[in-house]
Amino acid sequence: MATLSDFKTAEKSWWCPGCGDFGVLAALEKALVQVNANPATTAIIAGIGCSGKIGNYINSYNLHVTHGRTLPAAMGIKLANRTLTVLAVGGDGDAYAIGMGHFMHALRRNINITYLVMDNHVYGLTKGQTSPTSDMGFHTKTSPDGSIDEPVHPLMLAVAGGATFVAQGFSSWQPQLSRLIVQGITHPGFSLINVISPCVTYNRVNTYEWYKKTLVNLDEDPSYKSSQRAQVLARLEESDELVTGLIFQKPSRPYEELITGFSSGPLSEQVGPINQDLWDHILDQFE
């Protein structure tokens, strides 16, 4: 059985002191241990941005992809080797800006991967510009008079877009965040876990203190039914998505189980011996 130390690397972090991503990393490591994951069969697919460095700090397979391409890479890896525990990790810019097209189709395709999005409402790597989730009126270098764009609402988009598992955590609330990641990994299908991960350098509005006073924990509300889509969307609308906990979940069969004749083993083990005459014939077509 793997331990926390098995998932740690010697790589020195370059995140700013106090960055919420430290909390996400710690919760993810704990969750991997709780689900009895093995570093040798775990794959972290990370996007561009501050959050994209997380793969360097976890001892597992790690692929750092180009901006916005986290999900197609993660889905391809899962389909090529269904025995792997596959997690896609990115920021709100990577996920909900350039990666939004992939995000919406990943929801409906429902491949069995877990998507962790570290949402800080700002572009941190490029020194503080508005991101898709920045609030209206948010002042940055690119919006000195305050942002006039309506922010993306990822939780409502996910629920309306066909997701089978949607949750939101807060990097400071470790027990709940680890529990949500465990639930996401064990859910049979695509799991979105949006994680509020404050940027202490470029976002002085959406701070730890502000979130601790504002967030509502739905896991502590016995009247909330995460299986009722209409109730879920209404609650997200009225709360402006300032909630944590299991947002929505419904029974699910992942995409790969629905493909007729698709083996559960790695594709690399399904390739038989190559017929040399056939191979030579194929190559001749390109001369």
Would you mind describing this structure in some detail?
It is a single chain. This protein has 287 residues and is of the alpha/beta class. The protein has a single domain, classed as Rossmann fold. Helix content is 31%, strand content 15%. The protein contains nine helices and eight strands. It has an eight-stranded mixed beta sheet with strand order 2-1-3-4-6-5-8-7, sandwiched between helices. Helix 8 links the parallel strand 7 and strand 8. Helix 1 packs across helix 6, helix 3 packs across helix 4 and helix 5 packs antiparallel against helix 8. The protein is globular and about 70 Å long. The model has no long low-confidence stretch (mean pLDDT 95).
Layout: helices, strands, pairs:
Layout: H1 21-34, E1 42-46, E2 61-64, H2 70-80, E3 85-91, H3 92-98, H4 100-109, E4 114-119, H5 154-160, E5 165-170, H6 174-186, E6 191-196, H7 208-214, E7 216-217, H8 229-239, E8 243-249, H9 276-284
Parallel strand pairs: 1-2, 1-3, 3-4, 4-6, 5-6, 7-8
Antiparallel strand pairs: 5-8
What is the CATH superfamily classification? Thiamin diphosphate (ThDP)-binding fold, Pyr/PP domains
Report helical residue fraction.
25-40%
- Let me know the number of strands: 8
The low-pLDDT segments are none
The SSE string, one letter per element, is: HEEHEHHEHEHEHEHEH
CATH architectural type = 3-Layer(aba) Sandwich
| Estimated share of beta-strand residues | 5-15%
CATH fold-level name = Rossmann fold
Which structural class matches the secondary elements?
alpha/beta
Helix count?
9
CATH class: Alpha Beta
Kindly provide the radius of gyration, computed on alpha-carbon positions and rounded to a whole number of angstroms: 20 Å
The average pLDDT is 95
Number of domains: 1
Describe the strand arrangement of the main beta sheet, using strand numbers.
Answer: 2-1-3-4-6-5-8-7
Span from first to last CA? 53 Å
Globally, the shape reads: globular
